[in-house]
Design goal:
Blueprint (H helix, E strand, L loop, with lengths): L8 H6 L1 H4 L12 E4 L15 E3 L3 H9 L3 E2 L8 E6 L5 H14 E12 L4 H12 L4 E5 L2 E7 L7 H10 L3 E2 L6 E2 L11 H9 L6 E6 L5 H9 L3 E8 L2 H11 L8 E5 L10 E6 L11 H14 E12 L5 H7 L2 E8 L2 E7 L2
Parallel strand pairs: 1-2, 1-4, 2-3, 4-5, 10-11, 10-13, 11-12, 13-14
Antiparallel strand pairs: 5-7, 6-7, 8-9, 14-16, 15-16
Helix pairs in contact: 4-5, 4-6, 7-8
Length: about 350
């Protein structure tokens, strides 16, 4: 199997044991569970019958386009093969490995892969400790794949319970909001969001949206400061974060209808708004990608009514000015601090 520069290195490495003949696919593809699933070249034709869990909307959409099925987190079923592409964040990664062990049947196999610069060595050690057996490992594409034959009698049950608890939602001692490992700024106050929340005006009204809402920090600031809001929609691509946002925002103002949308904002939204707030992501992996924020800017411009207002925060170095100038009639820098800039842009 070859991998193009634009390919998914971790996915390609995950498939190595099957491409080499070291492992074989189960006879019944319905007995395969794929955690952190992503679509890409090299997947067998039978992958359309796998159970795929993926909480990041762009990856979930890609799976569906590839003819694969995306399912809610599976509980109570056992699978002969559990494939895992864990996240970089350590507690979330360990929680996913614990989920894999719980869902693998006796005599089955767990196969996981990760980039070297995202914790592949730790992944190998974690799976060995949790599963209680020797793992087989191989490396390629600057990634590592590890395989563990599953024996329930050897699983460290105390460690399993600890890792499940470590990945559970909890109330932040810093913000007082419900949070969870693996979501944006889960254990701290994001400086950009804090700057934008502090800079928001009190005269936003009508239909309002929060693009890339995370756990709801900006939505709460909107509701607390702007009595003229008639409705609020939260758009968030990460299902894990959206669940937390619902818990944090619901009931803040019972008179204002609030909608929660598991959605990739970069693809545009179907509704129109009088105001939008946004702290757009600027990377999917380790490398910054301004194209993501620019896509959010274009989506906001398309969703705002004439005269509608976008309030956006971004790293000062990100080149958003050209996109803002092309899409909006008026653009002004409201505040600059801590390496971030707050911008208000008004639709023509």
């Amino acid at each position: 199997m070859t991998l193009s520069a634009a390919g998914d290195a971790a996915l390609a490495t995950l498939l190595l044991p099957f491409a080499s003949g070291t492992l074989a696919w189960p006879d019944d593809p319905r007995r395969v569970l794929f955690l952190g699933a992503r679509a890409g070249p090299g997947l067998p034709a039978s992958a359309g019958e796998w159970s795929c869990e993926q909480g990041f909307r762009p990856d979930a959409d890609a799976l569906l386009a590839h003819g694969m099925q995306v399912v809610p987190p599976v509980r109570g079923s056992a699978f002969a093969l559990v494939l895992v592409l864990p996240p970089r964040q350590r507690e979330a990664s360990r929680g996913l490995l614990a989920h894999a062990v719980e869902r693998c049947e006796a005599g089955g196999c767990i196969v996981a892969a990760q980039r070297n610069d995202e914790g592949a060595r730790s992944l190998q050690d974690d799976l060995r400790r949790l599963g209680g057996g020797e793992v087989q490992a191989d490396s390629k594409h600057h990634c590592r794949v590890v395989c563990l034959p599953h024996d329930p009698a050897r699983v460290d049950q105390a460690l399993l319970a600890d890792w499940i608890a470590g990945d559970a939602p909890r109330t932040s001692e810093v913000t007082g909001l419900l949070t969870r490992p693996g979501v944006f700024s889960w254990d701290r106050v994001d400086r950009g969001s804090a700057l934008l929340a502090d800079a928001l005006p009190d005269d936003l009204s009508g239909r309002v949206a929060d693009f890339g809402a995370g756990i709801g920090v900006l939505s709460l600031a909107l509701l607390q400061r702007n009595p003229g809001i008639a409705s609020l929609d939260l758009y968030e691509a990460q299902a894990r974060a959206l669940e937390l946002a619902r818990a944090n925002v619901d009931g803040c103002d019972p008179d204002i209808p609030v909608g929660y949308h598991w959605h990739d904002v970069a693809r545009g939204v179907p509704s129109r708004y009088d105001a939008i707030v946004c702290n757009p992501p600027f990377h999917l992996g380790r490398d910054p990608d301004p194209a993501i924020g620019i896509a959010f800017i274009h989506a906001a411009a398309a969703a705002l009514v004439p005269g509608g207002r976008l309030w956006l925060v971004a790293n000062r170095r990100l080149p958003y000015e050209a996109a803002l100038g092309a899409a909006f009639a008026q653009v002004r820098e409201v505040r600059v601090a801590d390496g971030f800039k707050v911008v208000e842009a008004v639709r023509a």
